[in-house]
Amino acid sequence: DYGSGMAYNFFYGYLRLVLPEFGTQSVKGIKKRIETFINKHRLSDSAFPVKKLFILIPKSLYIPTDLKDVSTDWPDDKCWMDAAMSLEDQVFDRAGVKQRLYKNSVYKIKNRDSPGAQPVYVVAEGATPLKTCYDVINGDPKMSRVFKDHQHDIILSFYKTLRDIIRDSDDCRDLCEIIYYVDTDDNKKRINVARIILE
Amino acid sequence: DYGSGMAYNFFYGYLRLVLPEFGTQSVKGIKKRIETFINKHRLSDSAFPVKKLFILIPKSLYIPTDLKDVSTDWPDDKCWMDAAMSLEDQVFDRAGVKQRLYKNSVYKIKNRDSPGAQPVYVVAEGATPLKTCYDVINGDPKMSRVFKDHQHDIILSFYKTLRDIIRDSDDCRDLCEIIYYVDTDDNKKRINVARIILE
Ligand SMILES: Nc1nc(=O)c2ncn([C@@H]3O[C@@H]4COP(=O)(O)O[C@H]5[C@@H](O)[C@H](n6cnc7c(N)ncnc76)O[C@@H]5COP(=O)(O)O[C@@H]3[C@@H]4O)c2[nH]1
């Protein structure tokens, strides 16, 4: 089905390629790239407590281009997250595209409930296939109906399948955290994604 | 179903983002980027006859990392295609990843049947979701059986759905050429992809 198909694609076409170490000089896994980032930006190790990729799976399928836009305690508009520098790029040839580039973004999170606390850095992004699914729903006259009616099943199936694939993968199990969350309640109050990540 | 799902993902998550012009300085569509390439490398316009993206859809799902590997008249090993420089990169934020980079590769094709003829340049790549599907079949103990049994339906559904989506898209219809081909016959003779492109 569509949801689990996307999960297999997302794992085999992306996570499995960018997260683990491959033992070659040129392709560094996510742990090494985070350590390089810590050294390059002279951070304390405690500033980067979780050396994994956070993958956001919002029930609404909506992921903004910049995660800071979902890091406020609405209707307050102070953002908790801000984009910092990216990790080093990963570059390799794939399916005829020479030197395809894979990039991961680092975000700095300020806990606005405890202003004295040290900001925390994380590598986070939305699960891209869901954003694409969202674009199909909002852009395609033919399929929009079909996708919209099954939206809930699709995302649940995506989440569960991805969670199972990762749990069964020796290479990737400890290198990412999947966060499924309900981002709009009846008041359309936006969840502060930063809060969720900090937990 | 899985094949058509992949086609929607490929179109909305990629083709629709990289092919058309968007009227902004920073995001150039494929035609402009090809024209920039022609000028930058001082090519004649006839050296780059088709200003579109060639998308290869091999029945076997196998796409090598470098397309030159499928451009020989097996068992001869003279390649017809060679990777040239890439087009300019396209960079924009997507789903929380800042400055994600999209790249397309240019290949130079020498027609070895007519050695005197001018080499021809094209922008070509495999349809990456198929390579990912191939990786699932060859890498995943759980799903490999399922995917393998339906491989033929998956790829046919992918091809037909993609062809229809593109045909219905005003933005992308004239900006890409989809090539579905059978790449292995009973003798496992590899098709010369370069020949197909030249037609
Ligand atoms: N966050 C993130 N960063 C990446 O660099 C990346 N690359 C892939 N993915 C996601 O992994 C999965 C498998 O990727 P695949 O390459 O088989 O399909 C991709 C691929 O066929 C095509 N595509 C996307 N970006 C590129 C690109 N830069 N070059 C060529 N093809 C691309 O369009 C499909 C859908 O892309 P996304 O909808 O962005 O999500 C993909 C997909 O869910 C990524 N996700």
Automatic annotation (TrEMBL), chains A, B:
Keywords assigned by UniProt, alphabetized: Membrane, Transmembrane, Transmembrane helix
GO CC, alphabetical: autophagosome; endoplasmic reticulum membrane
GO molecular function annotation: 2',3'-cyclic GMP-AMP binding; cyclic-di-GMP binding
GO biological process: activation of innate immune response; autophagosome assembly; innate immune response; positive regulation of macroautophagy; positive regulation of type I interferon production; reticulophagy
Domain STING ligand-binding: 1-199
Taxonomy, superkingdom: Eukaryota
Protein name: STING ligand-binding domain-containing protein
Source organism of this protein record: Cryptotermes secundus
Residues of the full protein shown: 178 to 376 of 390
